[in-house]
Amino acid sequence: MRIPPPRLTAFADAALDRSLVLGYTRIGPALRRRWWPADPEPGCLDGQRVVVTGATSGIGEAMVTLFVSLGATVHVLGRNAAKVETVLADVRRALPSADLVAEVCDVSDLDAVRAWCDDLSSRVDSLQGLVHNAGVLTRAREESAQGHELGLAVHVLGPHLMTERLLPLLGADSARPGSVVWMSSGGMYSAGLRSTPDEIEYREPGKAYDGVRGYARTKRMQVEVVDAWNDRLRGGAVRVESCHPGWAATPGVTDSLPGFGRLMGPLLRDAASGADTAVWLVATRPTSAGTHHFWHDRAPRPTTYPVQRRRDPVARRAFLDHVAAATGTVWP
Ligand SMILES: NC(=O)c1ccc[n+]([C@@H]2O[C@H](COP(=O)([O-])OP(=O)(O)OC[C@H]3O[C@@H](n4cnc5c(N)ncnc54)[C@H](OP(=O)(O)O)[C@@H]3O)[C@@H](O)[C@H]2O)c1
Hints:
Elements: H1 6-19, H2 21-24, H3 27-32, E1 49-53, H4 58-69, E2 73-78, H5 81-94, E3 100-104, H6 110-123, E4 129-132, H7 150-170, E5 179-183, H8 197-200, H9 211-233, E6 239-243, H10 251-256, H11 258-264, H12 271-284, E7 294-296, E8 299-300, H13 313-327
Parallel strand pairs: 1-2, 1-4, 2-3, 4-5, 5-6, 6-7
Antiparallel strand pairs: 7-8
Helix pairs in contact: 4-12, 6-7, 7-9
Bound molecules: NADP nicotinamide-adenine-dinucleotide phosphate.
NADP nicotinamide-adenine-dinucleotide phosphate is lined by residues 53-54, 56-60, 78-80, 83, 106-108, 133-136, 154, 183, 185, 244-245, 247-248, 250-253, 274.
InterPro entries: NAD(P)-bd_dom_sf, SDR_fam, SDR_member_12
Protein name: SDR family NAD(P)-dependent oxidoreductase
Organism: Nocardioides plantarum
């Protein structure tokens, strides 16, 4: 097949992205795979170790199979031990040689995250991939074990703390340093950054909790945290990226957004397509990483559009301070 010239494909790719429906649904990868970068080489993750959180459903579960197919040892992390065992059994049925390790941790519980990171660090010498994929969208405001808004805890605080605690493992093998990928959402484009502790925790007096809004806010926060991680690790070997999966048919969509799931129905991509870019980022460590950290369908994407509010450095500082205080960490 003839591949169109790069400027034409860049234009077509951006047009698909801005249209949302064409880019985010199964139409996006169906067109883009004609020009997007090559698939990871078979066996390219042989002997490498990857952790996938939220691996008991949807995109995370599909990601386990994709990583195994590339040769990785995959640590399948979920909050429910029985579900983790089911995923292990299902993947082994399809791929009998799969090297899988069951991991149980509620990523919203910061004490559990600390304990699990210490435990993993006592069991393995290095880590080449860490995908923060676990996600929630609740109708009512819920709180984590430490009293944080649940979406904030699952999407931001737990993953930030996990990245901090696993950084030594991620940098341990200088020949194969690690990549951390945060699974955000295109929904983050609709949300700005909040600056007061009450706003960050979605505890605003007189304002009812809106689950979709809360979800978009914490997905925006993920991208801001990854920005800060990039500032922190610039020039280092460990990479920290964010991406979004488009719109994929998963229990997360059908259970949390049934109306959207019905509306988009056959246009939704499958879970493996939603998982593709995160796997590709870990497997190939693309060279433009470091300048662009937000990816979709194997290409860097803007984190804001020009029509959106300018970024507010005061809000960003206040938000990062809140993350540090909540997790007992320090931004160097
Ligand atoms: N599907 C889409 O179209 C779409 C679009 C944009 C972004 N995303 C993002 O992609 C990621 C995966 O979404 P999905 O659609 O595959 O959702 P999903 O089917 O609901 O899967 C979410 C996974 O996260 C796990 N999880 C939730 N809270 C957890 C916690 N506290 N500790 C550990 N694991 C936890 C769930 O565990 P249980 O099995 O125990 O519930 C499940 O394995 C999420 O971050 C989501 O925000 C998805």
